[in-house]
Fold this sequence. Notes:
There is one protein chain. Helix content is 34%, strand content 26%. It contains six helices and nine strands; from the N terminus they run βαβαβαβαβαββαββ. The two termini are 18 Å apart.
Amino acid sequence: MRIALLASGTGTNLQALLDEVHGRDGITIVAVASNRSDATALQRAAAAGVATAVFRREEHSDRDARDRAIADWLDERGAELIVLAGYMQILSAEFLARFPNRVINVHPALLPAFPGIHAVEQAVEYGVKVFGVTVHFVDGGVDTGPVILQRAVELPGARDAEQVLERLRPLEHALLPEAVRLIAQGAVSFDPSNPRRVIVER
């Protein structure tokens, strides 16, 4: 399976995928795109010999045009699964239609709780005792797509969002490669009686 990533930041989840699944079991990361030219993720990809590109919003007439350009570039590289790894942009409906049920995201909360940005800060402010990570399919909403995998950690005394994020990163770095591996193996499907329910066969 040919994997492409969209990333806006440091690319630690990209690095986890490079370390854990790239070049193994028929999985190849073929492209990494970003909306930011200074994203460290691009440097990680280039160091691994993966094609990179930058698609700045201001260089396109609107968001839809930018997303069409990204989709065309990914298609040219034969991308079969699109992974959002810290990509801080909302994708257009047209983009998602180009890759139906082939776009996944990792989110630092146990969805459906605390969707959107600043999820950990929201959870800390709410006073939750259990935090976690979700890998889910992407649909037209904000972190509303069907859940593939989740993992939790108890942090009953959490007061600092950055400390919580540090505890969650190892979960992200384990869960995202696992989800990609399962999808590549054909072990992930949708329950025909409830399209929101994802069936994972291990």
